[in-house]
Amino acid sequence: MDPLGGACHDSLHGQLYARLREAILSGALRPGQRLSSSRALAAQEGLARNTVLSAYSRLEAEGYVKAFRGSGHYVSPLLPAAAATGRAQPVRTREPGSGSVSRATGLPVREPRHDFSFVPTSLRQAIPSVPFRVNYPALDQFPLDTWLRLQARLVREAASAGAQGSLLGETEAQGEAELRQAIAEHVAIARGVQCRADDIVITAGAQHALDLLLRVLTAPGDYVGLEDPCYPGALSAARASGLQVVALAVDDQGASLPPDGRSVADGPSVLIVCPSRQFPMGVTMSLPRRLSLIDWARRHSAWVIEDDYDSEYRFEGRPIPSLQGLDGGQHVIYVGTYSKVLFPSLRVGFIVAPRSLLGPLVAARAVAGRHGSALEQRVLARFIADGHLARHVRRMRALYQDRQSALLEACQRQLGQAVSVAAAESGLQTLAWLDPALDDQRIAARAREQGIELAPLSRFRLNACHPPALLLGFGGFAPEALRRGVDVLSKLLR
Fold first, then answer.
1. Separation CA 353–CA 305 (nearest Å)
2. Disulfide engineering: 430 pairs with which of 132, 172, 424, 466, CB 3.0-4.6 Å?
3. Contacts (Cβ under 8 Å, ≥6 apart) of 483
4. DSSP 3-state assignment of 248?
């Protein structure tokens, strides 16, 4: 009999249920941990998917797991009352440092030497594309037919020239020369970046670029300056490199300079800032602050990493010129990405670095991932060079402005004075300020249960204390979906 009073686990789903429950009770599966998808687990165990779903349903009914629509099954933070008695918890012992035991071989498996539990969920797994997900572009508006036509043309050209290997084989760690040239020309015009194709290193997105730069520029124990509140990916990269964080308070002029009182030796050697549009506050760094930041970097022989993630979507006037252009590329390293401008699965970002850093960065890129996809990089190069990127950005800029207007109208009509939502000057999201008595993280948690994604401002803070607020992403969602999302939010606030 089941130790908790159930029937014997003769069926396949019963056996799977028992194994999963034992793993939860023993601590092998931790509270809050995401379980494998039913398809993945079924393939792994050689079972029918319905067998896995039956086991998951029983675990959910008994309180061992919680299911979130569109996200999956997670171990419950609170075990059911029967489990709290400890009657069904097997006692296991193991030698220190021996790790867990492999089911396949029965031999000890060493545990990881580094803990990466601090890496936010948004960087580790896919997030459902529901309102109001931040930094999410309008994927249904991407000119996929144009992209596929360019891809087919490249493949035909390579095949007719007998050069399939140039597309299907390895490429340089620094990235395809054709793409680096296209990027250099584009950012010079659109962002005022001073560079040549040889100054660019192609990466697997902006997060990869930040990780590479911190590994090259710092050593464990060094200080790094991060905006407060900050982009979680920057904080995760800093912690993964063993760095100490100096918080740079954000005001209406952007990120502040590192605090006084530190010697040059003990101060941050690297700062990571978003001067064109700070995330998550949405502030544009003023020209006096930009010049002061460049002067500080020169006086302290420090590096400033400029994370320019969505500056091209400016709704009024031209995009703000880059910090790197003001500095001339002496102390400012420019990081860009195409994940938000085009589509997230296009893992192509880039670094514009001073010549002195190119050798170490290319070597680090080779170690971290050897090289990217030659075919994908060349398609993107053609997409940029043929003018498709510029046309897409112009069209999306108008679309995102319309979608923000729809969001603001819905908030004004349905939320009234309960929430203060300001119009963003650029980008894919804006901030909704709440009553100071409210808890933005609690509201966000309740919103997830109702099928919408709200990012609480307090999640991004280091030391700074701001009134509660929610980030509302509007870029990837039609006006009807935004209005439905606002309706859900209004009911939560009531």
1. 10
2. 424
3. 406, 410, 414
4. strand
Token readout for 244 is 């100490």
For residue 183, count other CB atoms closer than 10 A to its CB: 24
Q: Which two tokens stand for residue 412?
A: 């004004």
Give 382's contacts (C-beta < 8 A, 6+ positions apart).
150, 153, 154
* Cβ-Cβ contacts under 8 Å for 339 (sequence gap 6 or more): 205, 206, 346, 347, 348, 349
Task: Cite the DSSP H helix spans in 347-450.
Answer: 355-369, 374-385, 388-414, 440-449
The token pair that represents 463 in the structure block:
């030391």
What DSSP character marks residue 140? G
From first to last of the 494 residues of the chain, give the pLDDT tens digit. Answer: 333 333 344 578 788 888 888 788 777 788 888 888 888 888 777 788 889 888 998 888 778 888 888 788 988 876 643 343 343 333 333 333 444 554 444 455 566 666 777 777 777 777 668 999 999 999 999 999 999 999 999 999 999 888 887 788 888 999 999 999 999 999 999 899 999 999 999 999 999 999 999 999 999 999 999 999 999 999 999 999 999 999 999 999 999 999 764 444 567 999 999 999 999 999 999 999 999 999 999 999 999 999 998 888 888 777 678 999 999 999 999 999 998 899 999 989 999 999 999 999 999 999 988 788 999 999 999 999 999 999 999 999 999 999 999 999 999 999 988 899 989 999 999 999 999 999 999 999 999 999 999 999 999 999 988 999 999 999 999 999 999 999 999 999 98
CB 245 within 8 A of CB 481: no
Please, what is the angle between helix 206-217 and helix 355-369, to 10°?
Answer: 110
Query: Is 281 exposed, middle or buried, given 0-12, 13-18 or 19+ CB atoms closer than 10 A?
Result: buried
